[in-house]
């Protein structure tokens, strides 16, 4: 796929469109022309069938997840939906498969494709702009976000995983180890002037995480991407999309992700307190865990540095790197100052 990704973005999109058109024949019904919604990690299309029903067709990035890992993601989503959580439904293909492999001449490798039910609503905000609204509106919104996170964790704690279920793990090794899941933040040139600070913080975090542990009251399946773009507001409720990063991890890592892009904004305290209150209305969140929020915010920040380091050629990475570096340095300094 190296040759494919060397193509200009417009040419990649044109070729992906052909794959999307070919993939639709694998699902029952007749569909209108697919409309590209997003092309970043995955290519996501809006499609409508001849009855007017709307769906999301996802073409997954080559070799990002194994077939078993993607199937596991979809199985968990289907179980959450069946349990009544506000997540997309999974639409089986004609043969009943939750995921299919599709190949067309325009793309050199077969790619994984799935179809999800469309959730109406709008994102509650964006990474760049944050969220808008009066303080009481923001608080009410994030109380719902906290409840949704707690419901998801409660479901994961009791759900019997299917045979062959496999997902990656957001552990100390997966974030701070030699081969982090999202790339090596240490290799980011812009971080070089701050390496001594970051190395001290990483050493302290490894010790603290070992003590914190991975017992079932604090560690399990998580969504791992509760960012504003993945939280939709519609029909008076918050809905959750994009389980691409879902895996095993600390519940506090989940909550830190929900808070991360509010850090440094005037709304941070409101969002933080509302998120915790909403979570605690569904399942326990002891102060013994919550007091480690600074640790998990810093862990989350390091993953974003790894993300931009492995995508340094993209416009998004170039635009976000200064923000991620400055936020990481601020979080590391605050984290060490508290120890």
From TrEMBL:
Record keywords: Transferase
Domain Aminoglycoside phosphotransferase: 41-280
Transmembrane segments: none
Protein source organism: Azospirillum lipoferum
Top-level taxonomic group: Bacteria
GO biological process, one term: threonine biosynthetic process
Lineage: Bacteria, Pseudomonadati, Pseudomonadota, Alphaproteobacteria, Rhodospirillales
One Pfam family per UniProt: APH
InterPro entries in the cross-refs: Aminoglycoside_PTrfase, Kinase-like_dom_sf, Pseudomonas-type_ThrB
Protein name per the record: Phosphotransferase
A GO term, aspect molecular function: homoserine kinase activity
Protein family: Belongs to the pseudomonas-type ThrB family.
Keyword Disulfide bond included in the entry's annotation: no
């Amino acid at each position: 796929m190296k040759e494919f990704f060397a193509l200009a973005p417009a040419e990649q999109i044109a070729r992906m469109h052909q794959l999307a058109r070919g993939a639709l024949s694998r699902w029952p019904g007749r569909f209108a022309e697919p409309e590209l919604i997003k092309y970043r990690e995955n290519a996501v299309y809006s499609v409508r069938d001849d009855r007017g029903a709307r769906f999301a067709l996802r073409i997954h990035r080559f070799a990002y997840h194994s077939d078993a890992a993607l199937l596991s993601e979809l199985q968990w989503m289907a179980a959450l939906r069946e349990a009544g959580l506000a997540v997309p439904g999974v639409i089986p293909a004609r043969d009943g498969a939750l995921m299919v492999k599709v190949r067309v001449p325009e793309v050199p490798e077969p790619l994984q494709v799935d179809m999800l039910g469309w959730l109406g609503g709008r994102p509650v905000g964006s990474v760049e702009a944050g969220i808008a609204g009066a303080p009481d509106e923001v608080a009410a919104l994030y109380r719902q976000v906290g409840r949704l996170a707690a419901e998801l964790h409660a479901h994961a704690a009791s759900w019997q995983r299917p045979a062959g279920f496999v997902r990656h793990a957001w552990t100390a090794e997966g974030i701070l180890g030699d081969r982090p899941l999202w790339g090596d933040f240490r290799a980011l040139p812009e971080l070089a002037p701050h390496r001594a600070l970051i190395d001290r913080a990483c050493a302290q975090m490894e010790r603290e995480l070992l003590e914190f542990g991975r017992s079932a009251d604090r560690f399990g399946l998580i969504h791992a991407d509760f960012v504003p773009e993945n939280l939709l507001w519609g029909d008076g409720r918050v809905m959750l999309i994009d389980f691409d990063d879902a895996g095993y991890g600390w519940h506090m890592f989940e909550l830190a992700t929900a808070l991360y892009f509010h850090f440094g904004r005037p709304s941070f305290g409101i969002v933080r307190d509302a998120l915790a209150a909403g979570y605690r209305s569904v399942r326990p969140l002891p102060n013994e865990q919550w007091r480690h929020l600074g640790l998990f915010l810093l862990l989350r920040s390091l993953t974003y540095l790894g993300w931009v380091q492995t995508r340094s050629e993209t416009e998004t990475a170039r635009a976000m790197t200064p923000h991620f570096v400055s936020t990481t340095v601020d979080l590391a300094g605050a984290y060490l100052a508290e120890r």
